[in-house]
């Protein structure tokens, strides 16, 4: 099985969990049906806060919401273009 088939078959679609709406936090990506920004959750994970600690602090979140943030970040980095100056 190639990488693309693996991704499509086993990894969730982050778009089911993340929304960018100009009416919510000026269009910043947030977890659907919340005002919790994706970058806040990514920063907490990067700071070493565990997934369980985040879920305890934000009871409306699910484990899948946090996983979706990681997938969102991975896809964003994958499509980033770097230009030489």
Task: Write out key terms for the chains shown.
85 residues, mainly alpha, Arc Repressor Mutant, subunit A, two-stranded antiparallel ribbon, 2 strands
Describe the structure.
With about 80 residues, the chain is mostly helical. It has a single domain (about 5-80), classed as Orthogonal Bundle (Arc Repressor Mutant, subunit A). It is built from 4 helices and 2 strands, in the order αββααα. The protein has helices spanning about 5-10, 40-45, 50-55, 65-80; strands at about 20, 30. The chain has a two-stranded antiparallel sheet with strand order 1-2. The radius of gyration is 14 Å and the shape is globular. The N and C termini lie far apart (about 40 Å).
């Amino acid at each position: 099985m190639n990488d693309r088939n693996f991704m499509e078959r086993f990894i969730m679609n982050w778009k089911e969990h993340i929304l960018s709406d100009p009416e919510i936090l000026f269009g910043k990506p947030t977890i659907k049906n919340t005002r919790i920004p994706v970058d806040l959750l990514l920063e907490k994970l990067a700071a070493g806060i565990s997934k369980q600690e985040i879920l305890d602090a934000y009871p409306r979140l699910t484990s899948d919401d946090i996983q979706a943030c990681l997938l969102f970040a991975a896809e964003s980095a994958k499509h980033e273009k770097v230009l030489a100056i």
